[in-house]
Each structure stands twice: as structure tokens, then as C-alpha cells.
Amino acid sequence: MPARTELARVDLRGRTPSVAELRSALPRGGVDVDTVLHQVRPVVEAVRDRGADAALEYGEKFDGIRPARVRVPREELTRALADLDADVRAALEVAIERTRKVHADQRRTDTVTEVVPGGTVTERWVPVERVGLYVPGGNAVYPSSVVMNVVPAQAAGVESLVVASPPQAAFGGLPHPTILAAAELLGVDEVWAVGGAQAVALLTYGGTDTDAASIDGTAVGGSELAPVDLITGPGNIYVTAAKRLCRGLVGIDAEAGPTEIAILADHTADPVHVAADMISQAEHDVLAASVLVTTSTELAAAVDDALDAQLELTKHRERVQTALSGSQSGIVLVDSIEDGLRVVNAYAAEHLEIQTENASDVAARVRSAGAIFVGPWAPVSLGDYCAGSNHVLPTAGCARHSSGLSVQTFLRGIHVVDYSESALKDVARHVINLANAEDLPAHGEAVRLRFERLTDGAAEAQR
Ligand SMILES: NC(=O)c1ccc[n+]([C@@H]2O[C@H](COP(=O)([O-])OP(=O)(O)OC[C@H]3O[C@@H](n4cnc5c(N)ncnc54)[C@H](O)[C@@H]3O)[C@@H](O)[C@H]2O)c1
Ligand SMILES: N[C@H](CO)Cc1c[nH]c[nH+]1
Ligand SMILES: [Zn+2]
């Protein structure tokens, strides 16, 4: 590992690349979910075929522990909350309160549109029945992701929620106690000790829990792990690949894989802030991406220096350095903020910070990002925990077409069509004409027959 971390440069000055050229020129190489699909497919298939037993075996292989049961006993949740550090509890409560405030405003009301007199279409918003919420637990512990998953699901009115998180060897095969405590704080009582691709597969296919003794030694019977309808939540490349494989059988939120931060900055940005924010997201994963897009070569050089100074002190230095020196991280030099906006819009980062003059105006011109953080006092870390915004956000360019987790993720809009006889009669000829134009005359007949019975001749023509 080189002592000095000099971020790779992509120099776009004097050029106006097309969007396609930008996408291939920008640093994002390291995170290709396709490259691990062949590793993840056998895991998903084994869990499909052998259920919880296979999931437990993979837990043993990848997490170094085989829990006695997949489902965490109820009393472990209560105990975890009782033992939770008071400052962490207070912080979680603030996070929950603010996140609830924002997500309460996302609730949708049904709309009734009177299309014509006697003809209405109602859009009814119905929560998904049972959801699986993935909470990562490999490199770090993510009670904040319990909050970010559970709060919108509850605000949407989902009735059945299960949280899945990897078993931890240090805690006898239970997920980390702060995860259990956060679940208890939020009123979620179904938590499974399963992580990675095997968790996504078990949520998809369900299974029967083992008959073994519970974690505290009390004998318990096997119980049904009912499959879910939708899986949400962030995770590493294996979790993301499993979600890609299971999509369709279950609903899946946007791919929220290894973390990314892009920062659009000019000469007014503070290099110490920029470097700190880049490190903060790089500490998630060796595959995390930190990208600075700037008009200022002076800032770029100062950020390299600030990174060096801060890396000396950062706890997960090796992970951060690997992420910063990977092909997914770097500094992109541009001629103007206008060009910078073209770059960040093409990149569609999970998190985008705007550290420029008139940051709000610049932010208003961003078209693609998971979440935007405006000016010097809104670092990504604030959004990770306590802004009220959601931190489960699309990565790898998915922000071009998808949004972060929200109440909407957990709702289905159902159109309820209600027409009177005369309203149908009024439009009947148009339905029949369109049906004939599509060579689907039985569609037209389904309308015509309501007003005219088949004559023998017409029946003959139909045949
Ligand atoms: N985009 C977002 O919204 C968002 C939010 C929070 C975290 N994240 C990301 O979530 C990820 C969390 O990753 P993590 O690793 O800490 O926890 P994780 O829970 O996602 O992954 C840990 C699991 O990965 C599996 N695993 C590990 N090595 C494997 C291998 N070689 N083959 C198959 N499976 C394997 C194990 O089963 C383990 O349980 C990070 O990449 C972080 O950046 C993203
Ligand atoms: N930055 C992550 C989203 O990519 C969320 C997170 C949780 N804890 C810390 N950070
Ligand atoms: Zn983070």
C-alpha cells in the first residue's frame, strides 16, 4: 500500500464528451455485480432447495458461526434494548423521530378521478403484505439501516415485517445487539440471524427453522419462516447480486450496493471537509467509491494532502485506502460547473455533495443522484443518521432510473375501474374499434355483447 494516497485523475478539461463517453470515462470500474453472479447463484439455489439448513451452512462458511436457530428469540430483543448504551439509544431515538417526520409526509392518499359522468378510476394505495428488510452486518454494524428500512415500511402500513441481518460470531450467532435493540425500539419482533445472499434467498423462498435448542439453551420447536413479498435494504456486492437474481419472484427495491459519494466542488470548497467526506464513505467497503468532480486543480491537490493527513488518523485506514486507490475512486477535472453538472448527472451517484458557490442553485440543476447534500453544513454523514432523509439509496448509476427507499417503495397503486351502463355504452364503439385495430376482436365482443346479444349470423362470423 503506497504511503501517499494520490487519487487517480480523469482530466476532461478542453473536452465535451457525450453521455456515453462520460459513463465509460468516469471512475466506476470496481463494482460489477455481474462478476459475482456465478458465486451467488448456487447459494440462492441451495436455499431454494434446502431452506433454512442451507442458509445456516452458508452462515457458518461466510460469517464463521452457525446459529442454533434462524429466528432470534423474542427475549433477545428485549434484552438487547435493556442493555443498550444510553447515548446510542438517545441517538437512535432522534434518528427515528426525524426519519418518521419526513416519511409521514410521503404517505399517499387514494385519488378518485371522474373520467366521465358515471365513470371513475380510483387509484388505491395498498401496502405490500409482508416485507423482508435486509440490514448489513459484515464490515460494520448498521442499526441506522434498521431505522431507514423499518420507518418507511411502517409509515406505508405494512403489517408483517421481518428484519434479516448476519449472525455474529462475537454474539453467539445473534445479529449485533444494537441491531436487535433498534428492531425492538421500532416494535419489530421478527428478526432472523441470516446475512448475505443466503438471507435474500431465504426471505424469497421461506423455510422451516431448525428444531435445535435456542441460543440461551431453552428447547424450542421449529417454526415456519414465511416468504416475503418484497425485499429492501442495502448490502454488499453479494447481497446486491442475490437481489438481482431473486427479482421477479419477490419485489426488490433499487440496488443499494457498495456506497458511493461524489462531490461537485469549486475553489470555495474546504479541502479538509471534502477529504473527510470522501473518507467517511470509503470506510464502508473496499468497493466503496469516492469521486471528486472539480473545476479547481488547487483544490484537487489540497484534497490529496488532506487525505494523506486524515488517513494517518482514520480507524479503518486499510479499507479506506483500498477504496480510494481502486478504479472506482478518483478526481475528475472539468472546465466549469456547467461541465461538472454534466459529469455528475451522467455518473448518478448514490450521494452527491455540492460544495460550490451558490450551492442551492447548482443543486437545483442536478437531475440524477440518490440524494443531494447542499453546501458545507450538510455532509453525507448527517444523512446517514439524523437528517430525516433515507440512507438506503441506489448505487452504480441506478439513480438514473430509481429512487431511494421511501413509503412509496412499500405501496402498490391499484386502479379500481367503476363504469355505469351508460358510461360504457358511450365509449363502446371506441373500444370495439381499437380491439379490431389490434386484431383482438373478442375484446370488442366483450363490450358489444353487453348491449346486443349475438345473432346467429354474428355468431357464425365470430367462429
Ligand atoms: N447503498 C446504500 O444505501 C447502503 C447503505 C448502507 C450500507 N451500504 C453498503 O452495504 C454494504 C455492507 O456490506 P457488509 O459486507 O458490511 O455487510 P453485508 O451484510 O452486506 O454483507 C455481509 C455478508 O456477505 C456475505 N459474504 C461475505 N463474503 C462473501 C463471499 N466471499 N461470498 C458470498 N457471500 C459473502 C456473508 O454472508 C455476510 O453475511 C457495504 O458495501 C456498504 O457500502 C449501502
Ligand atoms: N452511507 C451509507 C449509505 O450508503 C449509510 C450508512 C449507514 N451507516 C453509516 N452510513
Ligand atoms: Zn455511510
Automatic annotation (TrEMBL):
Its EC number is 1.1.1.23. It catalyses: L-histidinol + 2 NAD(+) + H2O = L-histidine + 2 NADH + 3 H(+). Its cofactor is Zn(2+). This is Histidinol dehydrogenase. It is an enzyme of class 1 (oxidoreductase). Zn(2+) binds at residues 281, 284, 384, 443. The lineage of its organism: Bacteria, Bacillati, Actinomycetota, Actinomycetes, Mycobacteriales. Catalyzes the sequential NAD-dependent oxidations of L-histidinol to L-histidinaldehyde and then to L-histidine. Pathway: Amino-acid biosynthesis; L-histidine biosynthesis; L-histidine from 5-phospho-alpha-D-ribose 1-diphosphate: step 9/9. The gene is hisD.
